[in-house]
């Protein structure tokens, strides 16, 4: 084996080790980004639902899941 073949082989092994070492951390970073995206979507959905319920209550529309179904709609002033 010539010295050039040894250097090429050592370089190949070094590149393979670097790839294996960084692949796991890249995969973990990708999973973390995906998890943050799911959490952000869930938070946005929760916030939208809360805002929708609050808007309906302001308009006087009571949902079926509210505990105060027996209450009449609020009085709307003529002002």
From TrEMBL:
Annotated signal sequence range: 1-22
Source species, domain of life: Eukaryota
Region of interest (Disordered), residue spans: 59-79
Designated name of the protein: Uncharacterized protein
Keywords: Signal
Native organism: Oesophagostomum dentatum (Nodular worm)
């Amino acid at each position: 084996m010539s010295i050039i073949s040894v250097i090429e082989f050592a370089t190949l092994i070094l590149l393979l080790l670097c790839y294996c070492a960084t692949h796991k951390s890249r995969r973990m970073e990708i999973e973390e980004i995906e998890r943050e995206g799911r959490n952000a979507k869930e938070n946005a959905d929760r916030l939208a639902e809360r805002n929708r319920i609050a808007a309906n209550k302001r308009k006087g529309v009571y949902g079926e899941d509210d505990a105060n179904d027996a209450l009449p709609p609020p009085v709307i002033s003529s002002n």
